[in-house]
Amino acid sequence: MEESAGNLGTGCKLILSCNSWTKHSEVAGLVVIKSNYKHFPGGEGSLKSFKMSSIASKFIRTAGKVIRCRAAVAWEARKPLSIEEVEVAPPKALEVRLKILHTSLCHTDVHFWEAKGQNPLFPRIFGHEAGGIVESVGEGVTDLKPGDHVLPVFTGECMECPHCKSEESNMCDLLRINTDRGVMIGDGNSRFSINNKPIYHFLGTSTFSEYTVCHVGTVAKINPSAPLDKVCLLSCGISTGLGATLNVAKPTKGSTVAIFGLGSVGLAAAEGARIAGASRIIGIDVNSNRFNQAKKFGVNEFVNPKDYDKPIQEVLADMTNGGVDRSIECTGNIDAMISAFECVHDGWGVAVLAGVPNKDAVFKTHPMNLLKERTLKGTFFGNYKPRTDIPSVVEKYMNKELELEKFITHEVPFSEINKAFDYMLKGESLRCIIHMEEET
Ligand SMILES: NC(=O)c1ccc[n+]([C@@H]2O[C@H](COP(=O)([O-])OP(=O)(O)OC[C@H]3O[C@@H](n4cnc5c(N)ncnc54)[C@H](O)[C@@H]3O)[C@@H](O)[C@H]2O)c1
Ligand SMILES: [Zn+2]
Ligand SMILES: [Zn+2]
Question: Which ranges carry the Alcohol dehydrogenase-like C-terminal domain (predicted)?
Fold first, then answer.
C-alpha cells in the first residue's frame, strides 16, 4: 500500500486524492476525512490506519537522513523566488526538523527580500509564518516528538535566561530574533544545501520549504485538532498585532486607539482594541482600499494622510481633543512611527511600534514630546512568549474568541508563491496562505 502512496521521499505524494486544502491539513492531522480515496477499498477506517501508518513510517524512514524536497529559494534581492530541489540535513542537538504544511507571507519577508533590512544575505529561504508537523528531533529534544503539530516562531524561548524568566519580556537571550544570522546557532552551519552549496536560513524558520530545521526553543506545540491552514497565521502577524495591543498598549474600556497601517498586523491590533473595549478605533493608511476591509475588524474611523496637507498627528489631535489614548504602528515607515508617537495624548498616551524599519531609519522627535508624559514602546511578536503563550492564543481561535478566516484574502499552491509577493506589494492582500501540498 505504501508503494501506491507514491514518492515518500518528499512526503508530498502521500495526500494524492484530497480535494480541498482544508482536507490536506486534516490528513496531516491524522484525522479521518471524507474523501474520494478510490485506491483504498477498505473505506475511511482503513484509510485512517493507512495514513497513520504511512505517515509515521515515512517519518521513521526519513529520520536521521537528508531529505530532498522543494523549497522557494531567493537567489538575490527583489528577484522572484525559484522553486528548487534542496537537501535538508537532519536536525542536530536541540533541533527539530519540521514538515511545513501551510505558510503565509508577512511583510517582514518582503522587507528582507527587498534587502531593506540589516545585511542582505542571499541565497536564502525566507518564510516565518507557518504551521507544520515534527518529522524528527535531534539529540536532547524532550519536549517535542515526531507527529506533534507546531508553529515555528521567529523569536524563541529558551525558558532559562533572565528574559524567559521575566514576566515582562519575550526577548530571550539565546533565541531572540536575529535577522542577520543565516545559520543554525548550534554549529554555525546551514541545514539547507543545493549540490553541497549552503543556502541561508531566515529568522531561524525558513518556512518556504517543504521541510525545515529549527531550534527546539522556537517551536510552539499546539492543539493537534487546530487547522494548520488557519492557525499558521498565529505564528507571526496576527499574534504580533493582537499582542501589541493587548499585552503592550493595553487600552482601557472606552478609550480611543489609533492604528497606523491596516495590513494584517494592524488589523489584528484593531481586533485587540475591539476586544479591550476601545470605543473609537481610528485606522490610518495611505491605501484607502484598506478602509472597507478594516470595518470588519472594528475600525470605525479612517484617515488617509494623503488627504491632508498637515502632519497626520495634528489631524488626529484635532479629531480627539488633544490626542489618542493609545496608538499602534504597523507600517514599517519611519514617518508613520514618528506620527504614531506624536499623536498620543500628553499625560497618559502610549505609542507602540511594531513595524520593521529600513536599516538607515532614524526616529527623530523633540524630547519635550516625551517630557510631556507620553510613553513610547516597541514590540516583537506582541510580547508573547512563543512556547508558553501561543498554544493559548490557538485556543482563542478554537473557542471562537478570535476569527482568523477574515485575514485570509488569498490562497495559492506552493508553486505559485510569487503571486503572494505580488498581492502584498500591490496592497491587495491581507494574508495569502501558501499550501505546500499541490492540489491534484
Ligand atoms: N514587530 C514584529 O514582531 C513584527 C511582526 C510581523 C510584522 N512586522 C512588521 O509589521 C509591519 C506590517 O506588516 P503587515 O504584514 O501587516 O504588512 P502589510 O504590507 O500587509 O500592511 C502594511 C500597511 O501599512 C500601510 N502603510 C505603509 N506606509 C504607511 C504610512 N506611511 N502611513 C500609513 N499607512 C502606511 C500600507 O498601505 C499597508 O496597508 C511590517 O513593517 C512588518 O515588517 C513586525
Ligand atoms: Zn512576520
Ligand atoms: Zn531565553
Answer: 265-395
CATH architecture for the domain at 238-383: 3-Layer(aba) Sandwich (3.40)
330 given a catalytic annotation? no
* Ligand 1 pocket, residues with Cβ under 6 angstroms: 106-108, 111, 236-237, 240, 260-266, 284-287, 290, 305, 330-333, 335-336, 354-356, 379-381, 424, 427
CB count in 10 Å sphere of residue 405: 8
CA of 262 to the centre of ligand 2 (A): 15
pLDDT by 10s per residue, the chain, length 440:
232 333 333 333 333 233 333 333 333 333 323 333 333 333 343 444 445 445 666 788 899 999 999 999 999 999 999 999 999 999 999 999 999 999 999 999 999 999 988 789 999 999 999 999 999 999 999 999 999 999 999 999 999 999 999 999 999 999 999 999 999 999 999 999 999 999 999 999 999 999 999 999 999 999 999 999 999 999 999 999 999 999 999 999 999 999 999 999 999 999 999 999 999 999 999 999 999 999 999 999 999 999 999 999 999 999 999 999 999 999 999 999 999 999 999 999 999 999 999 999 999 999 999 999 999 999 999 999 999 999 999 999 999 999 999 999 999 999 999 999 999 999 999 999 999 987 54
Instruction: Tell me the residue type at 140.
Output: G
pTM, two decimal places = 0.89
The reply to whether 201 belongs to the active site is no
Tell me if residue 163 is catalytic: no
Three-state DSSP at 89 gives: coil
Residue 401, classified by CB atoms within 10 Å of its CB into exposed (0-12), middle (13-18) or buried (19+), is exposed
Which residues of the chain does CATH 3.90.180.10 include? 67-235+404-435
Domain spanning 67-235+404-435: CATH superfamily: Medium-chain alcohol dehydrogenases, catalytic domain (3.90.180.10)
Catalytic residue check, 164: yes
Place of cell 489609533: 258
Phi and psi of 179, rounded to 5°?
-80, -20
